[in-house]
């Protein structure tokens, strides 16, 4: 049995935990261990790292930890125990992650390159090969990265006219807010396990680059990611950063499955439909 720590003195309590989990699974397999126990360690600022990043309040960080980080850790099949600690024990012999910034995206890319996409939700949903999901980014932080809602609505109307069932997954802050003329799934916005099951049971899942997109890939679900970089923001959102993690400009996640693609185009209706046609219509006709 291997011990792994997700250390909140260094790491955020967010979807970024996905990179940590793929690294943990890669390390477990390399060691030949049968299972792993995951301890989530507290940081110095109300249980979290000292920073000025989002979310700003301790209550919001607790909610993110409990609704995203913890349930995602429990989706790792090899994890026999996941617990949130209120103290910081000395690292166990042979353990990983203690005191470490363990969620760098480079770890995610390296694991995917080895075919490691291990997350499996416990919820079960009947597969529907006419269902297409659109996960919206609608955040107050870095709004430049948000989904172009008007274009997604046009694309959804076009897909619906072809007989597809389009379901929108809104940002958690807007989970239950209706989109007139379109279907939303508030449960998927609120329940991570259900969200993972929905992605795995759908024909296609659309995103712009954000945490839920990489989570979908780690769940081995069909995933199309529009606008994978934002060079206006640069830093960890730019082309250079993605290249430093192992994905060149215009490139793809290594070892990605059929129906898992980075779409190097803005999220406009024509690009959305082109990506869908190239990755799903041809396969559907063959099937």
Structure description:
The protein is α/β, with parallel strands linked by helices and 287 residues long. It folds into two domains: 2-113, no CATH class; 128-286, Rossmann fold. 35% of the residues lie in helices and 17% in strands. The protein contains nine helices and nine strands. It has helices at residues 17-31, 58-74, 105-113, 149-161, 186-190, 192-200, 211-218, 239-244, 269-286, and strands at 2-7, 36-41, 79-84, 128-135, 165-169, 183-184, 202-208, 223-226, 260-263. Helix 4 links the parallel strand 4 (128-135) and strand 5. Helix 1 (17-31) packs across helix 3. Mean pLDDT is 94; it is low at 283-287.
Short description:
This protein is of the alpha/beta class. Helix content is 35%, strand content 17%. Helix 4 packs parallel to helix 9.
Total of domains: 2
Largest sheet: 6 strands, parallel
Order of strands, widest sheet: 6-5-4-7-8-9
Number of strands: 9
Q: Classify the fold: give the CATH topology of the largest domain.
A: Rossmann fold
Strand content: 15-25%
CATH class of the largest domain: Alpha Beta
Supply the helix-strand structural class.
Answer: alpha/beta
Helix content: 25-40%
Uncertain residue segments: 283-287
Tell me the number of helical segments per DSSP (H or I, 4 or more residues long).
9
